[in-house]
């Protein structure tokens, strides 16, 4: 779909909701998620894997409500502890905070919540997906499982995005490089902040120009994988190398109109 003429106002509205919510999402990333939700040229639902306290959820729901895109499907067991989830300081669940975030933002009715692991939801999933937002288990096996289970439901032109591909977690960066950028099922791709995204384009993903651009990004991002395998506690030379390689991966602000044009199917 084309970029809505009132998208700047919609993006501001979404950001105001996001900025007041607890969680871990930069303004650049939040605005990009709003753009993807508003301008992805595909039919289907928005599925969020990993909701924590609802920061990205309210932004997606804000856009979905404004443009009548249906409810945002959010799946998360909301349990702790986890090796990759933020520390809840002894509390067993983030669900009450999540519910409070939705209420405060006024978007509760626009979110369909599943308090289960994503693999459990996948057993009964049968809906096309226009935007698959993955911010759950950051281990390699966990991130790969989410991609393997749900990308078969991506609609033509839909977007898959993973959070923290440019942080020192092995799962998101490996899956992004190996399973997404390395596959001709995908077309345009890029990074915004620590979000890695690609468009599902099985009809023309193998075209020379699209493949070349995707693989060029993969080559740059692949330098991060050996360092991410070491875990989050990078120090000294390893930390400097990681910062250098990360800087070589384009991940700045995205021009909304240019992005919408780049993923257009017309």
CATH domain class: Alpha Beta
Give the number of domains: 1
User: Uncertain runs with pLDDT below 50, 5 residues or more?
Assistant: none
Annotated CATH topology: Rossmann fold
Which class of secondary structure composition applies to the elements? alpha/beta
CATH architecture: 3-Layer(aba) Sandwich
User: Which percent range describes the beta-strand content?
Assistant: 15-25%
Can you identify the CATH superfamily? Vaccinia Virus protein VP39
Count of helical stretches:
11
Question: Largest beta sheet: what is the strand line-up?
Answer: 3-2-1-4-5-7-6
How would you describe what is shown here?
The chain is α/β, with parallel strands linked by helices. The chain has one domain: Rossmann fold, CATH 3.40.50. It is 43% helix and 15% strand. It contains eleven helices and seven strands. α3 (55-66) links the parallel β1 (45-49) and β2 (72-75).
Identify the notable features of this structure and list them briefly:
266 residues, Rossmann fold, 11 helices, 7 strands
Short description:
Helices cover 43% and strands 15% of the residues. By secondary structure, it is α/β, with parallel strands linked by helices.
Write the layout of secondary structure elements.
Layout (H helix, E strand, L loop, with lengths): L6 H13 L7 H13 L5 E5 L5 H12 L5 E4 L19 H11 L5 E4 L3 H5 L6 E6 L5 H11 L3 E9 L7 H12 L4 E7 L2 E6 L7 H15 L2 H4 L7 H12 L8 H7 L4
Parallel strand pairs: 1-2, 1-4, 2-3, 4-5
Antiparallel strand pairs: 5-7, 6-7
Helix pairs in contact: 1-2, 1-3, 2-3, 6-7, 7-8
């Amino acid at each position: 779909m084309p970029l809505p003429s009132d998208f700047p106002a919609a993006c501001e509205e979404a950001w105001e909701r996001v900025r007041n919510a607890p969680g871990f999402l930069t303004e650049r990333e939040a605005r990009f998620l709003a753009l993807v939700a508003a301008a992805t040229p595909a039919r289907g639902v928005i599925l969020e894997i990993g909701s924590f306290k609802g920061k990205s959820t309210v932004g997606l729901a804000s856009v979905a409500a404004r443009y009548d895109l249906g409810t945002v499907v959010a799946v998360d067991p909301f349990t702790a502890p986890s090796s990759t989830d933020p520390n809840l300081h002894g509390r067993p669940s983030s669900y009450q905070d999540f519910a409070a975030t939705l209420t405060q933002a006024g978007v509760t009715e626009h979110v369909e919540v599943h308090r289960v692991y994503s693999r459990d939801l996948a057993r009964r999933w049968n809906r096309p997906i226009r935007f698959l937002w993955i911010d759950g288990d950051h281990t390699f096996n966990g991130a790969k499982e989410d991609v393997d289970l749900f990308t078969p439901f991506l609609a033509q032109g839909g977007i898959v995005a993973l959070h923290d591909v440019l942080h020192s977690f092995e799962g998101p960066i490996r899956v992004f490089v190996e399973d997404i950028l390395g596959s001709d099922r995908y077309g345009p791709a890029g990074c915004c902040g620590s979000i890695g995204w690609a468009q599902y384009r099985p009809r023309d993903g193998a075209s020379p120009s699209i493949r070349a651009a995707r693989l060029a990004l993969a080559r740059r991002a692949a330098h991060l994988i050996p360092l991410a395998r070491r875990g989050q506690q990078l120090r000294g030379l390893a930390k400097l190398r990681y910062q250098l390689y990360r800087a070589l991966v384009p991940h700045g602000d995205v021009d909304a109109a240019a992005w919408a044009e780049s993923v257009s199917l017309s």
